[in-house]
Structures are given as C-alpha cells and as structure tokens.
Design a protein that fits this description.
CATH class: Alpha Beta
Structural class: alpha/beta
CATH topology: TIM Barrel
Radius of gyration: 24 Å
Number of domains: 1
Order of helices and strands: HHEHHHEEHHHEHHEHEHEHHEHH
Distance between the termini: 64 Å
Helix content: 40-55%
Number of strands: 8
CATH superfamily: Metal-dependent hydrolases
Length: about 450
C-alpha cells in the first residue's frame, strides 16, 4: 500500500546498514583481534611533547616543526570531526556525551588536568599504558620532563650535520625551506656549542673529528638508539657516490666564506650522509629516514621516494648500519617498500599512515608488506602535539594505535582466510609488527608497567 512505502524504505536502509556493519566486523577475526589488543607495543616513531611548567613552550619536539608553515587543509582522517576522537575521549576520559558542545568538551580538559596532577612526571607513560604502548622511540631535539624513563628511548636529529656551509641558496628555494634551514643552522650551532667548538673548523677532517663524530658519540651516550634524518624537507634523497678527497676540497674552499653551487654542495652532503650513517652503525644506532609525504604545501613529494635511496642501501660499506624507512613511503610509494626491505639491513615502519589513513586502507598495504617480509615491518604512531587542548597527543596516540591494531587484524585475517598463513603464524606476525621486530632491532627488553 502507498502509505507503507516510507516504512519499507526505512526497513531496507536499516537492513543495509546492519549488513554493512556486519561486513566491516567480519574483516577481522574476533579472537585474533583480542590477541592483537593484548600486545604491549613498541612505537618506532613519535614526537612526544615534554611536560611543561606554566608559560613554558616545548621547542624540541621536532627539529623542523610544521606549525609555522603556510597553513594547509588537514585530510579527512585528521580533522576534529573524525568520530575516532570522540571514541578516544570516551575511552581515556570517560566522556559521557555524543556531542561536542563547548561545555561538555571542557570536561575533557578538566579530566586531563586531574590526570596530570595525579600522575606528575609519570603522566606521559601512564597515557602510553592506557593505549597499549610499552616503549616509545621519542624523536626529539632533546628529551625533557616526563620522558626520561624506561618507556621512552631517545632518537635525535642529525640533518644539521649535512649542511655546514652557506645555506642561503637552499633557503631561497621555497618559503618552507627558508624556515627549515634557519632551524638547521641553529641546531648545528647548538651541537657545536655543546662540544666547545666556537667556529666552523677549517678542514673537513677537523669538522668530522671535532663536530660530527663527537656529536654522534654524545647522542649515543645520552641513550640514543637511533638517529633521524628528515632531509627530504631540504633536498631529495638521491645521495650519490662521493669520496672524501672531493668533499674535502669543496669544504675547504667555502668553510669561511663564499657560496658553493648546488652540484658542489650536494657532493659534500652526499659524503657527509654516508659518513654519518657509517658512524651511526659503528655506534649501534639505527638510521631513521623520513620517506613519502611531508607537511607544508611546498614539499617535494618526488624527492621523498624511498627508491632514491637504493645507492645508499646497496652500499656494501654501510651494511653494518640498520636503516628504517619511516612512514613506509606513505601513500605514494607504499608498494615499493616490500622490495626494499628485502635488503638485510633495511626496515620500514607504518608511522604517519596510522594517523592519516583509515584502518581499511592501511590494512591493504600491511597485507602486501607482510606477504613479503613480516620480520621487517614496525609499528609507529608519529604522534605529536595536536594543536588543541581537547585533541592533543593523547587522542592521537589512541587513534593511531587503534588504527594500527585494526589494520593488522584486517591484513592477517585476510591472509588466514585465503590460506596464506595459519592462525599461529598470524599471532606471531602480529607480535612481530607491534613489538618483537623493534625489540630485536633496538635490543629493548620488556619495560615495567607504568
């Protein structure tokens, strides 16, 4: 009858919605998901903020912070409207509402302040325990209050060591690089001051022996388990062959004046990159390299292709250095990573992707990588200060960890159902990605529960 058509349509919509929900739930084997959620993870890459005193700012969470850049529109997954953030509020702060009214949101901020007061310097580690992270590799210029415990490991930045000469031509290339190069110049000056070096040494040999090697050794003594390059923000990743003789001549000519042309300067950078990587291997520190997408509307995506690193990754003299391709090439270059991690000293993590992609999309990428080398893939969040009191690093930690676990469940369930792996292998691979691969790479024992 005509007057029943709305009810029929409503019933049809309801049944279709129920089918969609059931289909989404069937993507993940329930018992496997339960096991995945039990794993105390090691986060391979994050920028956790330190605890701040009243009026204090954290200038060290990233050597090249994105906030001062020309604003760009956030992707859909990272917008405040994402329902995952409300789910994080409910789980972390017992949020009772299904709306975002200002007065209700104030309750979240109040709950955070109470937790900070209750846990003091242990607050960051308490949050990690809430989201199931045992150890977090903290990629920062320097550690700080709340980060100096067994649940955090130091990963400093060393791009500044690659650019010791006049960087004004690089700074002139884009507004972003102008800001970034000023930061690198300040960081290199900071490292030199800490080493008691008041001026740039006259020769490359002196620069290596008085600045580069001592800076790396000092980082290792400070507890660093790896170093980080975000050099794709400053130049492309195609570090070509270089020898010390040519590099020394270029350095000596311009160490105290003048501006080298781009081709000359790149030869020096190519040599310094390999030297730093070699020294890092000697000191048992892995080398983390930003690959794939980056922040800022002037970022050169083509220069962040991990395939550009093949000459470095194929350098026999660097086989004692472990390389980690951060963000697994991100969306643009994800398929390439499965091949690159075949190399015995190359790994990749899924940081950034856990924040900027849906679990379903990441699950498809994860399945591809796991079908290559499940022993080489690492969990990561890339968490950083979120920009608002109600959606900050705590909620991003929840979101990225949840996305990673669900994506892993989707990938492994599909592999089980297609007969590629057994359930026992699925459980093993889940532990590999979320914890065991990183534990072996960085020799991290189990940490006490915070």
């Amino acid at each position: 009858m005509p007057h029943n058509k709305p009810l029929i349509r409503l019933a049809l919509v309801a049944s279709l919605f129920a089918a969609a929900v059931a289909g989404a739930q069937s993507l993940v084997d329930p018992s496997l998901m339960t096991e995945i959620r039990r794993i105390k993870a090691i986060d391979n890459h994050a920028h956790p903020p330190k605890l701040l005193a009243q009026g204090e700012k954290d200038e060290d969470f990233d050597a090249l912070p994105c906030d001062p850049l020309e604003p760009t529109q956030p992707g859909l997954i990272t917008r405040p409207e994402n329902p995952q953030y409300m789910a994080a509020w409910k789980d972390l702060w017992s949020y009772k509402y299904d709306d975002r009214s200002p007065q209700h949101v104030q309750e979240i901020i109040a709950a955070k302040n109470r937790a900070k007061a209750a846990h003091g310097d242990g607050y960051p580690s308490w949050i990690l325990s809430r989201v199931g992270i045992d150890v977090e590799l903290s990629n920062r210029v320097a550690m700080g209050r709340g980060l100096n415990d067994a649940h955090h490991r130091f990963v400093p930045f060393d791009d500044a060591l690659l650019f010791p000469l006049d960087n004004s031509p690089i700074a002139a290339q884009t507004p972003d690089r102008k800001f970034f190069m000023s930061r690198e110049d300040m960081l290199r000056a900071k490292y030199m001051k800490e080493l008691g070096v008041n001026a740039l040494p006259a020769t490359l040999g002196e620069y290596l022996s008085r600045v580069v090697t001592p800076a790396l050794e000092r980082q290792r003594q400070s507890g660093a388990v790896a170093i980080k390059f975000e050099v794709a923000y400053l130049r492309s990743l195609d570090f070509g062959p270089a020898n010390q003789t040519d590099a020394a001549a270029i350095y000596a000519k311009y160490a105290h004046g003048g501006t080298p042309d781009t081709a000359q300067y790149r030869k020096l950078q190519d040599f310094l990159f390999r030297y730093v990587a070699s020294e890092s291997g000697r000191l048992s520190m892995a080398v983390h390299i930003h690959t794939g997408a980056g922040c800022g509307s002037y970022f050169y995506l083509s220069g962040a292709n991990p395939m550009l690193l093949e000459p470095v990754l194929n350098d026999a003299s660097l086989r004692k250095t472990n390389f980690v391709l951060l963000h697994a090439g991100a969306v643009a270059y994800s398929p390439l990573v499965g091949y690159l991690v075949m190399k015995p000293n190359v790994y990749a993590d899924i940081s950034q992707q856990t924040w900027m992609e849906s679990a379903e999309h990441l699950g498809a990428s994860l399945r591809y990588w796991l079908e290559w080398y499940p022993e080489k893939i690492l969990f990561g969040t890339d968490l950083a200060p979120g920009g608002s009191p109600e959606i900050d690093w705590e909620e991003i930690a929840w979101q990225t960890t949840e996305n990673a676990r669900r994506a892993l469940g989707i990938a492994l369930t599909g592999m089980m159902r297609d007969g590629e792996i057994t359930r026992a292998e699925a459980v093993t691979f889940a532990h590999d990605v979320m914890r065991d691969n990183a534990a072996k790479l960085y020799k991290i024992p189990a940490a006490p529960t915070p």
